[in-house]
């Protein structure tokens, strides 16, 4: 059972004594036993050393495994216990995609009751042992006390209380300790692949490949040093994202003290004022007195400043704080900016007014437990996720290992037939063949593909905090969109008032009571002469030509209607779908008597039950308006006769009953300019699209129809009958009616389905089988709450679909987090796009700038671009992907990069597999004949191979998404069949050409003569006794030269044939670096085969081929290329297209 969202399980351990360590004690026994066995038997001395060497290697691997695997380390060096009193260490297994398994120290301290508290810290989060529940739990912060407890809190009155709180919670610090360069390098140098790479290099050294080995080692060390340097810079960036300490007033020991914010601890009382420059709220705070306007865009992506009110307006002081429901109105989050504050009108009885006249707040959470800390934690521990699918990679390597074992077995059998051949050399050669199956460059190449996509997305203003999700974008099957603010514009048009008269009336002719509701029922605030708040409310207030002034007074510009004063607000809630306000005005007709009114607005179906008298045309009016795409809000009011003296005692229910209907306000939401094109592109690229919105079903269906989500002629909505007894599917006009329990297959084939939140709840509770069958086929989900959006995404995932969710990052947070690919779009896109264009435009050389200065500037830009970490302001807690632009084109960009990355990864596996198989066989052929590549040949081959892989990883996606879907994983019919068939063709070519080369080597008396015949030492080396089979020195001949050229040609063949290109990314002709490297390598192969450049052949020690063999070589290689190309394209045509998942209905 998972402890929380971060930790899946924990295990307790005690370390064993060093002498009984699993990597020491058993091996000491083995050394002794092997030594005694060899001493008392007639085993040869070299066999004794071989045994000691084997035991030593096993011990080294066993010791390294303790670094590679925490579970293995626990098994060898620790003893598991059940009691935390005995334990010293804790093994932590995280939930998927939340970091790695770690072994951390268990700590203790004494609480105020002198009880020992056991705790540990994982990813900067503190966990404490609960002795009653017998489990660990995350630190419980004071976020669920009663409102009365918060209101009466006086902070810490003694140093003893404060020290206990600090001991429990720690201080408000986002400390990220930067490790040293050496420590990070050692960590990377002990990684399995690096150790394997060094092991391969050691084997090559034993085989006399000095240049190749040193070149490879230098490249590996240089690459690892570059990664370590980049990692340090990324961590520095993340550390800078944390809040810098600021001075603020804290109420301690019954007086206000000026302290740094990093000294705060939960339970403190602080004074918050408008922040200056880049200063942000230092921790999560509950507003006790006063009010604030907060910019949360850096944290949530919400571009509209949010109004925050104190808890003194909460009527029920006995209730507990509900963090989830109260956070939008009463909680200030760490990392946000206070752009305006209003000091409290009167002082709390328990706390004096602060010296800076700020708002009084209570510290709820600090450090990494805050919302900003959660974001930093995601980024900090998310950068380690740039990995391939480890299980698939392992399975693929094991698949290739079968062929390598066959090649090594062939070599061993053939080699042991010669009694004079060194078994040491034979063993070394077999080991080299086995290791060739795991390309040392595999992890590097796979990381490059993902990092390249991250960089490309960042240039498009899209930032990723969880890189491991990028390949998922290539597998996306269902794209889900929020409607308001995502597909439609924020700039709204108020069309008029409906339901009051027969026809819709313009806003300037609206009745007085309607105007009063529109003027008072909103949550707008005035910020430095700027009106901020919900776009619908801003548009409505501007349409009636009223002005909001300070202290919540609303004044008409020209009308004779009396001004209004807002006394109390009950804010809009997604779950309640309504808002209500208590307002007052002076009635001039009754000697300036103050009249109190309740103004309410919300969803028409919700307000219907609150009305005193319902007009006959109520339903038909709003349904007709919603059916043509308008956003419709019902307006109602009543005069309040009895008002409590203390407005805190006023309940929402007192306002929201016995209301008089005063009309529908009709607002049109124009589509964003590129919404239609994006949806069209997604539909044409084999994606399903779904709208998930909180808006009215008919409005949502209208927008869906405009964007081609649905067809109006066949659209049906799950509706409850008027008798409230049965549910059935019905069209907008009620012309089509389909029973709920009808034929599901016929239903989804014949109609476009719309499901409301109520319908979703009904099906989930009563007909889960029907829901699971139809939910992938629903085109529109309307009137759904945030939790229901989350449920829809989770259900689609459980059905096996790869999902994408795009929303504005506020009400959609849960759905964005649960989707495989969640994209939060921000609303400040246009001006940032302009800046982005200017930035790229200015990369040309500036006037008066010399070449040296230009190079320095470009190098600096390249250096800055290499930092792939997401910076402050670029990410949000809303989603793994954040777009800085408000356009939904970011969805297409992410999918394009995802498909490109996915296809690049799959083609890399194909190429690596074929190269490994070719290398295994070519090496076995050479070693059987006592021949090997020269040092320079191996170096050239490795260099060209690395360059080709680098250029493949830099492939760019096409501008338009393809209708064809990529294959989602390595193991599929296409990949297996094309690899095996291509290998058969290459294998036959190799066998034939090696046999032909052997014939010419036997018949041609000059087959061992180098073009560099004047080199006496090299000439003498060719006359050595043929019995010397240890091949300590390289001896060029026709077979060696032929196999080298064949291997080079076949490897370049695998690159060019298996490069996927269109329809997912640039083809070979468009990928200029890869094209140039491919053509260059082909030219080198031709020159070496033809012998036209004598110096080149001398450099790489290639013998002169007979004319007849040269013709055969070039002809066979050409036919091999054609055969491989035809086989691959045939397999691609038959099996190469990804299939869309279908749920049986």
From TrEMBL:
<keyword id="KW-0256">Endoplasmic reticulum</keyword>
<dbReference type="InterPro" id="IPR008250">
    <property type="entry name" value="ATPase_P-typ_transduc_dom_A_sf"/>
</dbReference>
<feature type="transmembrane region" description="Helical">
    <location>
        <begin position="394"/>
        <end position="413"/>
    </location>
</feature>
<dbReference type="InterPro" id="IPR047820">
    <property type="entry name" value="P5A-type_ATPase"/>
</dbReference>
<keyword id="KW-0472">Membrane</keyword>
<dbReference type="InterPro" id="IPR001757">
    <property type="entry name" value="P_typ_ATPase"/>
</dbReference>
<feature type="transmembrane region" description="Helical">
    <location>
        <begin position="1073"/>
        <end position="1091"/>
    </location>
</feature>
<feature type="transmembrane region" description="Helical">
    <location>
        <begin position="1042"/>
        <end position="1061"/>
    </location>
</feature>
<dbReference type="GO" id="GO:0005789">
    <property type="term" value="C:endoplasmic reticulum membrane"/>
</dbReference>
<dbReference type="InterPro" id="IPR044492">
    <property type="entry name" value="P_typ_ATPase_HD_dom"/>
</dbReference>
<feature type="transmembrane region" description="Helical">
    <location>
        <begin position="18"/>
        <end position="36"/>
    </location>
</feature>
<keyword id="KW-0812">Transmembrane</keyword>
<dbReference type="GO" id="GO:0019829">
    <property type="term" value="F:ATPase-coupled monoatomic cation transmembrane transporter activity"/>
</dbReference>
<feature type="domain" description="P5A-ATPase transmembrane helical hairpin">
    <location>
        <begin position="16"/>
        <end position="81"/>
    </location>
</feature>
<dbReference type="InterPro" id="IPR006544">
    <property type="entry name" value="P-type_TPase_V"/>
</dbReference>
<comment type="similarity">
    <text>Belongs to the cation transport ATPase (P-type) (TC 3.A.3) family. Type V subfamily.</text>
</comment>
<protein>
    <submittedName>
        <fullName>Manganese-transporting ATPase 13A1</fullName>
    </submittedName>
</protein>
<feature type="transmembrane region" description="Helical">
    <location>
        <begin position="48"/>
        <end position="70"/>
    </location>
</feature>
<dbReference type="Pfam" id="PF00122">
    <property type="entry name" value="E1-E2_ATPase"/>
</dbReference>
<dbReference type="GO" id="GO:0046872">
    <property type="term" value="F:metal ion binding"/>
</dbReference>
<dbReference type="GO" id="GO:0005524">
    <property type="term" value="F:ATP binding"/>
</dbReference>
<dbReference type="InterPro" id="IPR023298">
    <property type="entry name" value="ATPase_P-typ_TM_dom_sf"/>
</dbReference>
<dbReference type="InterPro" id="IPR023214">
    <property type="entry name" value="HAD_sf"/>
</dbReference>
<keyword id="KW-0479">Metal-binding</keyword>
<dbReference type="InterPro" id="IPR036412">
    <property type="entry name" value="HAD-like_sf"/>
</dbReference>
<feature type="transmembrane region" description="Helical">
    <location>
        <begin position="210"/>
        <end position="228"/>
    </location>
</feature>
<dbReference type="InterPro" id="IPR059000">
    <property type="entry name" value="ATPase_P-type_domA"/>
</dbReference>
<keyword id="KW-1133">Transmembrane helix</keyword>
<keyword id="KW-0547">Nucleotide-binding</keyword>
<feature type="transmembrane region" description="Helical">
    <location>
        <begin position="185"/>
        <end position="204"/>
    </location>
</feature>
<keyword id="KW-0813">Transport</keyword>
<dbReference type="Pfam" id="PF23143">
    <property type="entry name" value="2TM_P5A-ATPase"/>
</dbReference>
<dbReference type="Pfam" id="PF13246">
    <property type="entry name" value="Cation_ATPase"/>
</dbReference>
<dbReference type="GO" id="GO:0006874">
    <property type="term" value="P:intracellular calcium ion homeostasis"/>
</dbReference>
<dbReference type="InterPro" id="IPR023299">
    <property type="entry name" value="ATPase_P-typ_cyto_dom_N"/>
</dbReference>
<feature type="transmembrane region" description="Helical">
    <location>
        <begin position="1111"/>
        <end position="1135"/>
    </location>
</feature>
<keyword id="KW-1278">Translocase</keyword>
<keyword id="KW-0460">Magnesium</keyword>
<feature type="transmembrane region" description="Helical">
    <location>
        <begin position="973"/>
        <end position="994"/>
    </location>
</feature>
<feature type="transmembrane region" description="Helical">
    <location>
        <begin position="936"/>
        <end position="952"/>
    </location>
</feature>
<dbReference type="InterPro" id="IPR057255">
    <property type="entry name" value="2TM_P5A-ATPase"/>
</dbReference>
<dbReference type="GO" id="GO:0016887">
    <property type="term" value="F:ATP hydrolysis activity"/>
</dbReference>
């Amino acid at each position: 059972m998972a402890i929380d969202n971060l930790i899946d399980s924990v295990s307790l351990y005690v370390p064993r004594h060093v002498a009984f360590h699993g990597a020491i004690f058993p091996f000491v026994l083995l050394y002794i036993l092997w030594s005694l066995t060899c001493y008392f038997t007639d085993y040869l001395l070299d066999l004794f050393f071989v045994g000691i060497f084997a035991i030593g290697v096993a011990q080294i691997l066993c010791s390294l495994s303790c670094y590679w695997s925490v579970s293995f380390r626990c098994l060898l060096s620790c003893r598991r216990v059940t009691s935390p009193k005995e334990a010293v260490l804790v093994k932590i297994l995280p939930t998927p995609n939340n970091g790695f398994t770690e072994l951390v120290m268990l700590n203790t301290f004494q609480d105020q009751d002198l009880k020992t508290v056991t705790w540990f810290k994982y990813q900067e989060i503190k966990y404490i042992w609960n002795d009653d529940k017998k489990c660990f739990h995350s630190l419980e912060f004071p976020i669920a006390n009663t409102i009365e407890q918060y209101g009466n809190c006086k902070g810490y009155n003694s140093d003893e209380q404060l020290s206990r709180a600090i001991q429990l919670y720690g201080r408000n610090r986002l400390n990220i300790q930067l490790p040293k360069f050496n420590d990070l390098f050692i960590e990377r140098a002990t990684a399995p692949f690096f150790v394997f790479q060094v092991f391969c290099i050691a084997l090559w050294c034993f085989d006399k490949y000095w240049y190749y080995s040193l070149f490879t080692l230098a490249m590996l060390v240089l690459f690892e040093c570059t990664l370590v340097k980049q990692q340090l810079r990324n961590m520095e960036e993340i550390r800078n994202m944390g809040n810098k300490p600021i001075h603020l007033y804290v109420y301690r020991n019954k007086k206000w003290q000026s302290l740094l914010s990093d000294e705060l601890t939960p339970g403190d009382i602080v004074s918050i004022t408008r922040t200056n420059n880049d200063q942000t709220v230092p921790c999560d705070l509950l507003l006790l007195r006063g009010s604030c306007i907060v910019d949360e865009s850096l944290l949530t992506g919400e571009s509209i400043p949010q109004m925050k009110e104190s808890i003194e307006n909460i009527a029920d002081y006995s209730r507990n704080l509900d963090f989830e429901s109260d956070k939008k109105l009463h909680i200030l989050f760490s990392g946000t900016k206070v752009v305006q504050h209003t000091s409290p009108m009167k002082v709390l009885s328990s706390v004096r007014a602060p010296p800076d006249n700020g708002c009084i707040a209570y510290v709820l959470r600090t450090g990494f437990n805050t919302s900003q800390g959660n974001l930093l934690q995601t980024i900090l521990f998310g950068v380690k996720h740039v990995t391939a699918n480890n299980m698939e990679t392992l399975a693929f390597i094991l698949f290739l290992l079968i062929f390598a074992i066959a090649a090594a077995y062939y070599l061993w059998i053939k080699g042991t037939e010669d009694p004079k051949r060194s078994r040491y050399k034979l063993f070394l050669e077999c080991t080299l063949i086995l290791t060739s199956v795991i390309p040392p460059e595999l992890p590097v190449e796979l990381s490059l593909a993902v990092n390249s996509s991250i960089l490309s997305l960042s240039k498009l203003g899209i930032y990723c905090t969880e890189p491991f999700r990028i390949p998922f974008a290539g597998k996306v099957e269902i794209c889900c969109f929020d409607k308001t603010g995502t597909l439609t514009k924020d700039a709204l048009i108020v069309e008029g008032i409906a339901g009051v008269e027969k026809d819709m009336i313009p806003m300037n002719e609206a009745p007085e009571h309607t105007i009063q509701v529109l003027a008072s029922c909103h949550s707008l605030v005035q910020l430095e002469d700027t009106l901020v708040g919900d776009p619908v409310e801003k548009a409505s207030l501007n349409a009636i030509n009223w002005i909001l002034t300070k202290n919540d007074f609303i004044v008409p510009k020209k009308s004779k209607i009396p001004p209004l004063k807002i006394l109390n607000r009950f804010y809009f809630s997604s779950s309640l779908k309504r808002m209500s306000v208590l307002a007052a005005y002076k009635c001039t007709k009754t000697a300036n008597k103050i009249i109190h009114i309740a103004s309410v607005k919300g969803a028409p179906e919700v307000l219907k039950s609150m009305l005193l008298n319902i007009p006959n045309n109520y339903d038909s009016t709003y349904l007709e308006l919603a059916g043509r795409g308008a956003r419709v809000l019902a307006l109602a009011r009543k005069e309040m006769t009895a008002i409590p003296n203390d407005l805190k005692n006023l309940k929402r229910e007192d306002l929201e009953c016995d209301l008089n209907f005063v009309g529908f306000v009709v607002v049109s939401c124009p589509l964003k300019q590129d919404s239609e094109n994006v949806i069209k592109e997604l539909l044409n690229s084999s994606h399903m699209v779904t709208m998930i919105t909180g808006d009215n079903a008919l409005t949502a269906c209208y927008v869906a129809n405009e964007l081609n989500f649905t067809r109006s002629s066949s659209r049906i909505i799950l509706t409850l009958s008027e008798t409230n007894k049965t549910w059935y599917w019905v069209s907008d006009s009620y012309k089509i009616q389909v029973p709920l329990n009808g034929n599901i297959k016929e239903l989804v084939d014949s109609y476009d389905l719309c499901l409301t939140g109520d319908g979703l709840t009904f099906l989930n509770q009563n007909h889960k089988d029907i829901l699971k069958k139809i939910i992938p086929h629903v085109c529109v989900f309307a009137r759904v709450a945030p939790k229901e959006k989350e449920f829809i995404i989770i259900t689609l995932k459980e059905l096996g679909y790869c999902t994408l969710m795009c929303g504005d990052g506020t009400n959609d947070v849960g759905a964005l987090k649960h989707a495989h690919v969640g994209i939060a779009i921000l609303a400040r896109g246009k001006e940032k796009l302009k800046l982005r264009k200017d930035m790229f435009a200015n990369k040309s050389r500036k006037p008066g700038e010399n070449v040296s200065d230009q190079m320095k500037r470009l190098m600096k830009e390249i250096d800055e671009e290499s930092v792939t970490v997401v910076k402050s302001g670029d990410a949000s807690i809303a989603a793994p992907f954040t777009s800085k632009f408000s356009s939904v084109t970011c969805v297409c960009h992410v999918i394009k990069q995802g498909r490109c990355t996915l296809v690049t990864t799959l083609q890399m596996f194909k190429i690596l597999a074929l190269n490994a198989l070719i290398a295994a066989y070519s090496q076995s052929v050479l070693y059987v004949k006592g021949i090997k590549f020269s040092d320079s040949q191996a170096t050239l081959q490795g260099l060209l191979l690395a360059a080709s892989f680098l250029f493949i990883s830099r492939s760019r996606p096409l501008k338009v998404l393809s209708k064809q879907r990529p294959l989602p994983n390595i193991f599929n019919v296409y990949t297996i069949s094309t690899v095996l068939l291509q290998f058969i063709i290459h294998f036959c070519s190799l066998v034939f050409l090696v046999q032909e080369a052997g014939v010419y080597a036997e018949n041609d008396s000059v087959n061992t003569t180098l073009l560099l015949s004047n080199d006496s030492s090299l000439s003498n080396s060719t006359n050595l006794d043929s019995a010397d089979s240890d091949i300590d020195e390289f001896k060029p001949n026709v077979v060696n030269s032929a196999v080298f050229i064949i291997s080079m040609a076949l490897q370049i063949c695998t690159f060019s044939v298996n490069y996927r290109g269109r329809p997912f990314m640039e083809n070979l002709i468009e990928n200029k670096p890869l094209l140039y490297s491919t053509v260059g390598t082909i030219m080198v192969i031709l020159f070496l085969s033809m012998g036209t450049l004598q110096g080149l052949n001398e450099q790489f020690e290639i013998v002169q081929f007979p004319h007849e063999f040269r013709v055969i070589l070039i002809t066979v290689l050409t036919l091999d290329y054609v055969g491989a190309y035809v086989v691959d394209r045939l397999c691609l045509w038959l099996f190469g297209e990804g299939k869309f998942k279908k749920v049986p209905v």
